Amino acid sequence: MRSTTELRGEILTAARAEFARYGLAGARIDRIARAAHASKERLYAHFGDKETLFREVFFSDGAEFFRSVTLRPDAVPEFVGDIFDLACRKPEHLRMITWAQLEGFALHEPQADGPPPQAQAVAAIEAAQAGGHVDPAWDSTELIVLLFGIGLAWAHLPSPDSVTDDPAVLASRRAAAVEAAARVVAHQT
Description:
The chain is mainly alpha-helical. The protein contains nine helices and no strands. The longest helix has 23 residues, at 4-26. The protein is elongated.
């Protein structure tokens, strides 16, 4: 028999797959319950309604994302590589963000241990600028947005060629993203 924690985890896993594929409007509670081997009644007892479940998955994914990537002042371009890797490993995170935007959800900053992720990233960019690793002409917030864009570029490319499991292709794309980031943050003379 599963514990409450195990059941909750299985419901969240099933909901993540369902929401990433169909969004909030297209997701079906009966499919989520069936995939989690739970009754709809148990699902509603844990989460109340479909929107609450969607929010729980969305915020959980956001927290996991920010635990998975760290912006270090001495390795700003590598941060872009880490974003690229995460987008390849966990494409459902990006789909959840896209669905949340399409559904009109406010994309509040995810909760994480320690200082807020945005504040940590800004502080890391400012430290990188002070340490001579990043051109100080950049506004730290604007630079972070651009770095995310570089790391997620392949994930957002509207082409069937963007999806691949080929390790050589993925390595080449990751290297290009890191190189692009290195050029963007380099001091301009």
